[in-house]
Amino acid sequence: MKSAKRPPITEEQSRQIVYMRVDRSLTAGQIAGKLGLSHGAVTWHLLKLGVEKGGVAPEGYKPKPPSLYTYTRNGYPVRGYTSEDDRQLQKLSMQGLKHSEIARQLGRKSNSVRGRLFTLARRDERREEITAAKSALAQPKQEG
Fold first, then answer.
1. Which of 6, 41, 54, 137 is deepest in the core (most CB within 10 A)?
2. Contact 26, 56 (CB under 8 A)
3. What is the pTM of this model?
4. Which domain of life is it from (predicted)?
5. How far apart are CA 55 and CA 30, in angstroms?
6. How confident is the model over 77-134, as pLDDT tens digits?
């Protein structure tokens, strides 16, 4: 039995979600409870916007060992992404393929592809910010 589709997140709810996550450092579950939204909706919205909880993630991303790529979430088996999966996903995306086309080629669901591309883009942005900050700190100050 399918559940009723919920209405989309409003602009006001979006602003509240961002405020609660960034300024108040609340978890997605806490935000969902306060706004009467599902945990999944809040998590997806945060992922889509690239919003992090109070700061930047660690600089180095360490992939999980292959044995951890398949796990269970809410009673369903989930297949994680390997480094090779990520490379192939980005290559297909850069070729201009739609999410649904990429999903078919990789044997995944299009929402999974879309969410992973959001995650990879967010990681790239963090790396660029960290690199820019490091180079700014390394620049000798010029006296005028």
1. 41
2. no
3. 0.54
4. Bacteria
5. 18
6. 778 888 889 999 999 999 999 999 999 998 889 999 999 999 999 888 888 888 888 8
d(CA 49, CA 122): 9
Q: Which two tokens stand for residue 142?
A: 């010029």
Domain ranges of the chain: 11-49, 66-138
Lookup: tokens for 125? 């942005």
CA distances from 1 to 4, 139 (A): 10, 61
Q: Is pLDDT above 70 for 24?
A: yes
The tens digit of pLDDT for each residue in 35-54 reads 999 988 998 888 887 776 65
Pair of tokens at residue 41: 């909706």
Residues 6 or more apart in contact with residue 61 via CB below 8 angstroms: 123
DSSP 79: E
The Cα–Cα gap between 16 and 105 comes to 38
Closest alpha carbon to 85 in 111, 58, 63, 59: 63
